[in-house]
Design brief:
This protein has 120 residues and is mainly beta. It has strands spanning 11-20, 26-30, 36-46, 53-61, 66-76, 81-85, 91-93, 98-103, 109-119.
C-alpha cells in the first residue's frame, strides 16, 4: 500500500510505547498498513542504580529489507537518560518500517518511543 498523503490527513493520533530493553534486538514500533508514523522522540533511560549499559537503536526499512543504526552501543550511565531523537530530528516510518532496540544488559535500560500515527 502507498504511504498516505501527509498534506491532506484524516487523522493524526499521538502514541507512546514504553518498555524494557533486552539483550536481543526487538521491534518497538512497527508502522501499520495504511499509515505513516512520524517518530517524535526516542528516550533511553538507565534504571540500574550501579552499572552503565549500552543502547543500540535501529531504523528498519522494510522496502529495502535493511537495518540502519540510529545509535550503536552508546553508554548510558546509571540513573541517567539519553535523548536519542527529538521532534527536531524526527523520521517517518512507512508501512512495515520499524524502530528496534537492544541493550548490553537485560532489564537495565528502558526505552520510550513517541510518534504520530497519520492516515489520509
Amino acid at each position: 500500500m502507498a504511504a498516505p498523503n501527509i498534506v491532506n490527513v484524516a487523522t493524526i493520533t499521538g502514541q507512546t510505547v514504553p518498555g524494557t530493553l533486552t539483550t536481543s534486538n526487538s521491534a518497538w514500533v512497527t508502522c501499520a498498513s495504511e499509515y505513516v508514523y512520524k517518530v517524535n522522540s526516542i528516550i533511553v533511560a538507565n534504571i540500574d542504580g550501579t552499572n552503565t549499559a549500552t543502547a543500540t537503536v535501529y531504523f528498519y526499512d522494510s522496502s529495502a529489507g535493511a537495518r540502519y543504526q540510529i545509535i550503536h552501543q552508546v553508554p548510558v550511565p546509571p540513573g541517567t537518560s539519553l535523548n536519542v531523537m527529538d521532534r527536531n530530528s524526527g523520521i517517518y516510518l512507512e508501512e512495515g518500517d520499524k524502530i528496534e532496540g537492544m541493550a548490553s544488559a537485560a532489564s537495565d535500560l528502558t526505552m520510550i518511543v513517541s510518534y504520530d500515527a497519520i492516515t489520509d
